Amino acid sequence: MLKCLKNWANGVREELRLPAAAKAERRRDRAGLPGEEPGIDRVVEEGIGWLGRAQDRSRSSDGGVARHFSLVGGWATSYPETTGYIVPTLLEYSRRTGEGEPRQRAGRMLDWLLSIQFPEGGFQAGPVDARPPVPTIFNTGQILLGLAAGVRDFGDDRYRSAMVRAADWLVENQDKDGCWRRFPSPFAKPGERTYDTHVAWGLLEAARLEPTKPYGEAALANVRWALTRQGENGWFEDCCLTDPARPLTHTIGYALRGVVEAYRFSGETAFLKAARQTADGLLGALDEEGFLPGRLDSRWRGSVKWACLTGTVQIAACWMMLYQDAGDRRYWDAARAANRYVRRTVRLDGPDETRGAVKGSFPVDGGYCTYQYPNWACKFFIDANMMEEMLRTGLAEGRAPLA
Predict the structure, then answer these.
(1) Which long-range contacts (C-beta less than 8 Å, at least 24 apart) are formed by 156-163?
(2) Which residues is 230 bridged to in the sheet?
């Protein structure tokens, strides 16, 4: 009884502290999702617009993208890690639509990232104003994705030089078994990380541009190491920022994407088998509405009642890639349901700060990026929806269109 009273009192205090906008959004989310969803074209267009505003309104005003907009604290400073992998999203959108502004914005982001790269090649953890700034493996790998995209799209030697320095630094600091143990993020739980396969993906993109370098070998070594921590049911140990016993779908999505990319790079069927084991486990956690619990235990059971929307769309993208690679219709159906669920959470009216943005959690007071709209949620949302549209219309190169 006493515990219930304390919880009630804490809830009352939180309610009193919240700004009106946060209270209103929580009430709206608790009322449930709307029955209709706005469709892919509209949400992608609005999402791209929001990323542009997040760049323009970053509290550090430096060309990077604000980490988030918070209903409690407003706009944040720029976040190097996610600015890095937002670059490929903007460039892909620009290629598809012919719009020049997203490409120009991506160039500004890349130029800013070059200005903050450490001499040895790494990039810092956390937002740009984190102190002291320290180079970190994971963040460098994510920025590497943007640098590689910049080399492909702009052909700028400055981007290639920065890409090579970053990739060299990752290879130099990798342990012999393929794991990265040095230069961890000070903002995550210490220890080994199987979601570093997403770092390996960055090295694979660099390897495509610099095939004589050891980047591909190093990347595949990391994925092979991660698979030693994968159970028979596809669940990964040490796959969370904070709670490895109940990892976020966000970090599960990171790990799975790295394995899928390793298969696409190498053609090794062991990677495809491993990716399908994880993807199949996730299928069992998805409900008919497309809701995926934000944390999952080792038996793929949801341990929370909120969705980590970032993780939902990351996993949707992986399911679609595996549908292409394995031809299993279950992946396509699950991906569409997951994307549709997240589209229903996005508001296309209201203030610029939230229009087209994606919440950290649904409902907004859930346990991931509470009351925030993180930039990477919007990025992965756009990616997954563009992928769905590409598959639906049969534009995937070398793959048959879907009915």
Answers:
(1) 156/110, 158/114, 159/110, 159/114, 160/209, 162/113, 162/114, 162/117, 163/206, 163/209, 163/210
(2) 236
Q: Inform me whether the pLDDT recorded for 395 exceeds 90.
A: no
Please state, as a whole number, how many other Cβ atoms lie within 10 Å of the Cβ of residue 355.
16
Query: For 79-111, how does the pLDDT look when each residue is reduced to its tens digit (9 = 90+)?
Result: 999 999 999 999 999 999 999 999 999 999 999
Q: Say how far apart CA 95 and CA 102 lie, in whole Å.
A: 9
Q: 368 by DSSP, 3-state: which? A: coil
Cα separation of 301 and 290, whole Å? 15
- pLDDT tens by residue, 21-49: 999 999 999 999 998 999 999 999 999 99
Q: What phi and psi, each to the nearest 5 degrees, are found at residue 181?
A: -115, -20
Distances (CA, A) of 139 to 113, 199, 375: 12, 8, 15
Angle at 67 between CA 349 and CA 390, to 5 degrees: 60
Token pair of 299 as six digits: 């038996």
HSE-CB for 336 with a 13 A CA cutoff: 11
Instruction: Report the C-alpha gap between 273 and 260 in whole angstroms.
Output: 10
| Three-state DSSP string of 74-139 | EECCECHHHHHHHHHHHHHHHHHHCCCHHHHHHHHHHHHHHHHCCCCCCEECCCCCCCCCCEEHHH
Question: Does pTM top 0.70 for this prediction?
Answer: yes
Contacts of 239 (CB under 8 A, 6+ apart): 193, 194, 195, 229, 247, 251, 252, 255
The DSSP output letter for 211 is T
Structure tokens at 234: 């596809």
CB atoms within 10 A of CB 219: 31
Tell me the angle at which helices 215-227 and 249-266 cross, rounded to the nearest 10 degrees.
130
Q: What pLDDT is attached to residue 394?
A: 83
Q: Identify whether the C-beta of residue 250 lies closer than 8 Å to the C-beta of residue 368.
A: yes
